[in-house]
Amino acid sequence: MTNKANNPAWSILGAGAIGSLWACYAQNNGQAVELILRDQASLAAYQAHGGISFSSEQQTQLLNISACCPETLAHPIQQLLITTKAQQTIAALQSIKAHIHPKAHLVLLQNGLGITEQVQAHFPQALVLQASTTEGAYRSSRFAVVHAGRGQTLIGAASIEPRTNTSLAQSTAIAESLSFAPLQVAASENMAAVLWRKLAINCAINPLTVLHRCRNGELLSNPAALTHISQVVDEILQLSKQLHLDQYVEGLQQQVLDVARNTANNRSSMLQDIESGRETEIDAITGYLCRLAAKQGLTLPTNQFLYDEIQRITALNRR
Ligand SMILES: NC(=O)c1ccc[n+]([C@@H]2O[C@H](COP(=O)([O-])OP(=O)(O)OC[C@H]3O[C@@H](n4cnc5c(N)ncnc54)[C@H](OP(=O)(O)O)[C@@H]3O)[C@@H](O)[C@H]2O)c1
């Protein structure tokens, strides 16, 4: 997709850990990108900070990446990387809707499912893709980002429906244009499998780390948590069978245990959100799963229990 001179190739909505990670590597690769901040107060704070303080294995730098906010956006957006939390997406997009080209490329780089359908409904002519990453980043302060762990990023049609109209060639071109070294983005021929498996693993780990208030690895030595994992997995396998997605989650129980072991020291993002009094992504993870099951006439008692518990804890946090 072409841009007028001076317009950035990519605009990035959500200057948090992941959005800043992509923006910083783009800048280090000499690619013009632009961060879209929430409002004028955020933009002023960003400018006062002088940009993003970025720490990677190689170095720590202060990168003055071009930034704007809805009030100062001055050009049509043709390629937008969306890196807000799932539940923040629609409000964030609404704030810049007037600037988004009807046929824009919109890439959601975030966890959870069900948001892309809402985005597509707001932008019926846009190409909406979803990306899933295992890169790890965190903010040590508001505009300071640490690249904590290397991973992989896959991109593709934003749907768990195996058949979609998005061509692999389109996804490949977009993946290449988002591959700011050392970040590598690849187009997936079977994004449905990637998304479904990721959702399943998130459902089996994230809410349980909140329920048991523990790091990922501690789930493995807690008999009650292990029972919950088995129940969550069984329910997902039952739903997967009904949706003909069971081939995507073969060996799920073992995969969940492996992920918990390989990320043993991590505090899941859901646990961190709860501990910081923030909203979690439960609605786009376990909530999405339970709603999908309900459409199939299935109830998933353990997943529903976990969904209700996280909502209850979030509400208590707000008081
Ligand atoms: N961090 C990781 O290592 C990692 C790894 C894999 C996947 N993910 C997924 O990636 C997504 C982003 O995660 P993250 O860790 O980067 O979250 P984050 O640090 O909380 O970043 C979200 C950003 O979105 C911004 N935002 C929210 N509403 C906005 C609005 N209306 N307008 C403009 N900006 C808005 C937030 O701004 P404020 O600061 O003003 O609230 C924040 O900067 C999540 O789905 C997460 O699950 C993260």
UniProtKB/TrEMBL annotation:
Question: Which keywords are on file for this protein?
Answer: NADP, Oxidoreductase, Pantothenate biosynthesis
SUPFAM superfamilies reported in the protein's UniProt record: 6-phosphogluconate dehydrogenase C-terminal domain-like, NAD(P)-binding Rossmann-fold domains
One Pfam family of this protein, by short name? ApbA_C
Iron listed as a keyword: no
The Enzyme Commission number assigned here is 1.1.1.169
What this protein catalyses is: (R)-pantoate + NADP(+) = 2-dehydropantoate + NADPH + H(+)
Describe its function. Catalyzes the NADPH-dependent reduction of ketopantoate into pantoic acid.
> Domain Ketopantoate reductase C-terminal: where?
191-312
Which NCBIfam families does the record associate with it?
apbA_panE (TIGR00745)
* Lineage summary: Bacteria, Pseudomonadati, Pseudomonadota, Gammaproteobacteria, Cellvibrionales
Look up keyword Oxidoreductase and say if it applies: yes
Family the UniProt entry places it in: Belongs to the ketopantoate reductase family.
State what protein this is by name.
Answer: 2-dehydropantoate 2-reductase
* PANTHER family (alphabetical): 2-DEHYDROPANTOATE 2-REDUCTASE (PTHR43765:SF2), 2-DEHYDROPANTOATE 2-REDUCTASE-RELATED (PTHR43765)
Residues covered by the Ketopantoate reductase N-terminal domain: 11-158
Per the UniProt record, the source organism is Zhongshania borealis
Enzyme kind, highest EC tier: oxidoreductase
Please name the pathway: Cofactor biosynthesis; (R)-pantothenate biosynthesis; (R)-pantoate from 3-methyl-2-oxobutanoate: step 2/2
